[in-house]
Amino acid sequence: AALDATPGSSVVFDSDFRVLAANRPVRQAFAAQIPGLEVFRLFGLDQDSGRRRLVEDVLRKALDGQPASLEIAEDASDGNGGATPSASRMKILELSAYPVISPGGEPVGFLHCVDATERRNLAMRSAQSERMESLGALAGGLAHDFNNLLFVTLGNLQLMAMNESVVRDEKLSKFVSRSMSAVERGAEITKSLLAVARSQPLEESPITLAD
């Protein structure tokens, strides 16, 4: 009853790493193999698998009276000839092992395993969202500061464009015109940055200044 109340996969194992008892999901997956099922079969780990050795270390610590935990990635490469793992089939498993006091005094351990894939993916998406939000705020701040500089620059260029000396000098007038075009292009870029910061497109609309 205690085992069946635990989520994920839970087993009690002996010093030979054999399952003595298991909760319902494990019993359903390995019908008629409990007791006696090798713990490593729960994860499909081959004899020479590096992850098998990691799991074994955790189990040994529990048998020695020390709680231990481990996080492993489970994919199609175990037990299939070393096939390349697929990201869509990758699972993150969290293992926790604890010592159990048995009536006979022989070392016994309790192993609990949960699939943390969705929780890990959710945490990654949350972190990515926070990074994007920070980048948006940074982009917005830079855009405002840059826009202020462009406003001053464009204003002075417009004044230069109306200056009689510039108007009479065709070459100088062309330089001023090109500079104004570049500044206006910079203003368009800041609009894009502001759109990113606000997470929405900017829309222009005509207004009547007199009103």
Fill in the keyword field for this structure.
211 residues; alpha+beta; 5-stranded antiparallel beta sheet; rod-shaped
What do these coordinates show?
By secondary structure, this protein is α+β, with helices and mostly antiparallel strands. It is 47% helix and 16% strand. The chain is built from five helices and five strands, in the order ββααβββααα. It has a five-stranded antiparallel sheet, sandwiched between helices. Helix 3 packs antiparallel against helix 5. The longest helix is centred in the middle third of the chain and has 46 residues. It is rod-shaped. The termini are far apart. About 6% of the residues have low confidence.
Could you outline the blueprint of secondary structure elements for this entry?
Elements: E1 9-13, E2 19-22, H1 24-29, H2 50-63, E3 68-74, E4 91-100, E5 108-115, H3 117-162, H4 164-168, H5 170-198
Antiparallel strand pairs: 1-2, 1-5, 3-4, 4-5
Helix pairs in contact: 3-5
**Strand fraction:** 15-25%
Please state the overall shape, judged from the principal axes of the Cα atoms. Answer: rod-shaped
Number of strands: 5
Low-confidence segments: 76-87
Please identify the structural class as seen in this structure: alpha+beta
Number of helices: 5
Mean pLDDT: 83
Distance between the termini: 77 Å
Order of helices and strands: EEHHEEEHHH
Helix content: 40-55%
Q: How would you characterize the largest beta sheet?
A: 5 strands, antiparallel
Rounded radius of gyration (Å): 33 Å
Strand order of the largest sheet: 2-1-5-4-3
